[in-house]
């Protein structure tokens, strides 16, 4: 039986392996760790393949975890709906790619990201604009090295391909975006249905 999430899980594994290698080399230069939610003050939306992975992540939460996510579904305080009160991600193992890559030095083609977000310019044949979390790689002694830089355009292209493969098997829409808040509201609806049956 074909797993419509297989290509995406392989992409996630590659990104996680890259992040682990950067962390092994540069841990002292990185502020990203459990409980740091500095980049999690946003309203994210995800494509169908990532929404499926998030749903899987929500499904494995215990009842208390699902209730916590549901309780945040209508809280608009600027924080990601998936964060708990301690700043930890409820769906950490199923989080979207943007969350997995956010603290890393990311290369984008020139002109793709706003000038204010550019931390450095890439050197060499790939060039491009580099951005990373300002809490990471502070000071010249800690500046990112070439082997620390993730090609964000390539990751985005691979995400688009894994999403197309997913929707080809599920009948979804390759252009659809679903907010994490909407996914949290699905949990609320499920909990309400369960209470109605009691």
UniProtKB/TrEMBL annotation:
Pfam families with a match to the protein in the record: CxxCxxCC (PF03692)
Domain of life of the organism encoding this protein: Bacteria
Name of the protein this chain belongs to: Fe-S-cluster oxidoreductase
Taxonomic path: Bacteria, Pseudomonadati, Myxococcota, Polyangia, Polyangiales
């Amino acid at each position: 039986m074909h797993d419509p999430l297989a290509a995406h899980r392989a992409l996630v594994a590659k990104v996680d392996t890259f992040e682990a290698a950067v962390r092994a080399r540069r841990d002292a230069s990185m502020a990203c760790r459990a409980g740091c939610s500095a980049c999690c003050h946003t309203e994210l939306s995800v494509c169908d393949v990532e929404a499926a992975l998030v749903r899987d992540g929500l499904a494995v939460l215990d009842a208390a975890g699902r209730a916590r996510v549901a309780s945040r579904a209508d809280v608009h305080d600027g924080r990601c709906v998936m964060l708990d009160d301690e700043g930890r991600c409820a769906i950490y193992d199923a989080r979207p790619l943007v969350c997995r890559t956010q603290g890393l030095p990311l290369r984008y083609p020139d002109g793709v990201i706003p000038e204010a977000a550019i931390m450095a310019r890439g050197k060499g044949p790939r060039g491009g604009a580099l951005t990373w979390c300002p809490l990471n790689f502070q000071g010249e002694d800690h500046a990112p090295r070439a082997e620390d830089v993730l090609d964000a355009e390539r990751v985005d292209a691979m995400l688009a391909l894994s999403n197309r493969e997913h929707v080809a098997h599920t009948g979804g829409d390759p252009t659809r975006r679903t907010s994490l808040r909407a996914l949290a509201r699905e949990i609320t609806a499920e909990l309400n249905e369960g209470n109605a049956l009691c």
